[in-house]
Amino acid sequence: MARTIQSLERAAAMLRLLAGGERRLGLSDIASSLDLAKGTAHGILRTLQQEGFVEQDATSGRYQLGAELLRLGNSYLDVHELRARALVWTDDLARSTGESAYLGVLHQQGVLIVHHVFRPDDSRQVLEVGAMQPLHSTALGKVLSAYDPVAHSEAVESAREAFTAQTLTDLEDFEAVLDLTRARGWAADVEETWEGVASVAAPIHDRRRMPVGAVGITGAVERVRRDGELRPEIVAAVRDCARAVSRDLGAQRF
Amino acid sequence: MSDTHTTGPFIAAIDQGTTSSRCIVFDRDGRIVSVDQKEHEQIFPKPGWVEHDATEIWANVQQVVAGAIEKAGITSADVKAIGITNQRETTLLWDKHTGEPVHNAIVWQDTRTDALCRELGRNVGQDRFRRETGLPLASYFAGPKIRWLLDNVEGLRERAEAGDILFGTMDSWVIWNLTGGVNGGKHVTDVTNASRTMLMNLRTLQWEPKILSSMGIPAEVLPEIRSSAEVYGETTSGVLAGVPVASALGDQQAALFGQTCFASGEAKSTYGTGTFMLMNTGSEPVNSYNGLLTTVGYRIGNETPVYALEGSIAVTGSLVQWMRDQMGLINSAAEIETLASTVEDNGGAYFVPAFSGLFAPYWRSDARGVIAGLTRYVTKAHIARAVLEATAWQTREITDAMTKDSGVELTALKVDGGMTSNNLLMQTISDFLDAPVVRPMVAETTCLGAAYAAGLAVGFWSGTDELRANWRRAAEWTPRMDAATRDREYKSWLKAVERTMGWIEDEE
Fold first, then answer.
1. B285 in helix, strand or coil?
2. Environment class of residue A158 by beta-carbon count within 10 Å: exposed (0-12), middle (13-18) or buried (19+)?
3. Reading across the β-sheet that carries B229-234, which strands appear in turn?
4. Is the ipTM of this complex over 0.95?
5. Do A81 and B422 touch (CB under 8 A)?
6. Chain B residues near any Cβ of chain A (below 8 Å)
7. pTM of the predicted model, to two decimals?
8. Are B312 and B300 a contacting pair, CB within 8 Å?
């Protein structure tokens, strides 16, 4: 058998000990029943507490299982919940940028559009909720691929079809773009999926810093760019929106 | 969500609602600059009784105004006007000399005046005052609540007749306090709030002496009825001292205004715990023969008043909450869409949530909820779908009633409220109405309506055309259901509705 990590085994034993019925245990009880030095036991308990797996009763100082354990088994964020939380912020994003706003999540091998706000110019537009977009060429897809390891492996294994002359199909180029996305916190698509169309997107995190989706805007390339550069106020608005939705989901400021 | 690219001047709107008071600052484009909100206590002295502490509410209003102004990083000099919107019908009497409420405010949902309303109906029944007021005798409206207070608070009637007591709905209470309170506060209300008292004649827009004497209410307590958009007075203290108070609209009328339903035939529906639909019927009040209410939509200054038909659905968002809290079929309200989307249709199941009887257009208090059409095939997902369809069918029933009463066919429905984030519901409503459903970009249409009215009153906006130009479509759902399916489903729904009736056999 491969080498195991002792502190993880000890942590697991502590959780089992605390799971034995509805009870709270003090530090010395835990340390003695697992045959550990108090200092060692305390270090492990404090780590578990930080992760939310263990909670300490404020008055007695005793330990019990944390709420995070319950959430582990039921952890995915409902996409309709995500839309409800994002509604106000994506409206404002569309308003401030003058472009249409989209909210996307990973679904199978692509980006599923779960929310769409029309471009505020009174033109005839069709709701695109339920549509799929490719992972490797769109801004939403790049953000998901950069932050969500499942999306990353889907994008890496996919054929990465060339939709335009601009589409990055080479794996090395693609990985470089993902590195850049992680470094600056947002992604762009300038005519890589549709001719004449550009988009900007940023990641949404939940309260455990897990990437749960991406939000962005899409518009005509001549409006989204100025002098050959993406307009910084658009990038700022997209990132503000992503941060606001993340905060609403309970993510810490970052 | 204060934004660096938003520059003044601004309009502040106060929304004194049923569960909380809010203040939102808007810019010229109708975009939200800042929001502050504070909840107040719901007081339940007995089953069916609901009260609010008006002193707490006034303190909260001052706090949220200060909070919103601070968050926006602006001063009173940047604010051109304050608009008020409020929970409707909630009734307060206070002492004119001390500013102290004589009793908690009686909230619109409170049913203590049920028996009194039956008594007031005498041999005519609940439509006794309908021709003058557009309303049936029901416990919601303010008039009977005033009467209850005069009858039940010791010595109050004498004080009221001596002219020491003031009545107001929450708009009046907030405006009186903002404009100075005991030191010359303006005792006014607007036509929309007055139209919910059952004491105002819809055509003259004045208090109706005949009804006042039938209900035993001294005219001395009543505020002056003003338009919805004019300067009532100036704020005398607080962070907005010196700023004109320039609009008042009941919350549903404010949403109609915020949705810019300025033309006859335009309608909005607000989907929350319950649902309220209002249709602009133009300059004439339309009598309803289909169980709707006739009400004032708004009046801008000296312009002709605009009337509306109103239909409400008692149980919409609260049915989803019931599925979550009582049935435990979902963990969050948003999950109803996830569950409902796992199936293609309702599997033959229909859910009529007549939890406390059927409201518009039936008005049957002997009805109770049913789930009809159950077979072994039906799953919880089908029930979830039936839950959403219930809201959509009830919307259809109210629009049908509006079409019958007004003769105007609905061309599109403007929606707002929390449930508009439910895509499946919005699509289903569009399918069942066979009309487009449109969501505007600013979800806070109630506050926006109050801000718009206040801005018009002080010339911040030039007119309703400019406001219309401000309106932005955020989403639109168009009908996808074929007529045959729609008709067949509607028939099944109506059969299910029939099965709810007569469940309660002895009303007493």
1. coil
2. middle
3. B32-39, B20-26, B10-16, B79-86, B244-250, B229-234
4. no
5. no
6. 1, 3, 5, 29, 31-32, 331-338, 418, 420-423, 441-443, 472-477
7. 0.82
8. no
